[in-house]
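Async update (no meeting this week)

Hi team, since we skipped the sync, here's where things stand on the single-chain job. The sequence we agreed to prioritize is pasted below, unchanged from the tracker. I ran it this morning and attached the output directly underneath so nobody has to dig for it. Comments welcome in thread, and please keep replies under the output.
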Amino acid sequence: MWRTHGAGYLGDFFFRVVDPARAAQMLDGVVGFPDNSTVLFTTGLGDVIFHANDVFFVIKFRFGVIDLVPTGTPFGELVAMMERPENRGPVFEWDPYPAVVATHREGTPAFEQCYGFVPLLALGGRPSAENVQLVGLYEHLALIVQMAGMPQLRGFLPTPPEPSANRFA
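Output:
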């Protein structure tokens, strides 16, 4: 996707298609990616989605967890899951992103920015729109890992709802 389209956004500017080499460089020393990993996406709340050993991983630094996309999920299906608005809340836990973008004067974060919780959730912060600030993406992720440790495996992403065959029924 990066080679064909370059940097860009999906899902109301929540998901960002990143340059894999730059993302790996910026996360070097922060995240110990397995060999042959490829960083594919980041999010407006500082998540990182990468691929390694035929598995897609979603690191949700703010919660201190790593979720796996079900084994065998093709790349196109992952992108389709990200593009469906009904998946952003239950699958990708994007709240309070929509409220923050709508109410903060900064709006959508720039490409290497995200909204970060202050104080960090791991340090007692509350996951609400009032407790976010616009921060540098990679600096924020390094701070979370320094203060709270590397996120730990939680399990699989929640199963997304099936898209409705007829949304107007």
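Quick observations from my side:
The two ends are 34 Å apart (CA to CA).
The chain has a mean pLDDT of 91.
Reply here if anything looks off.
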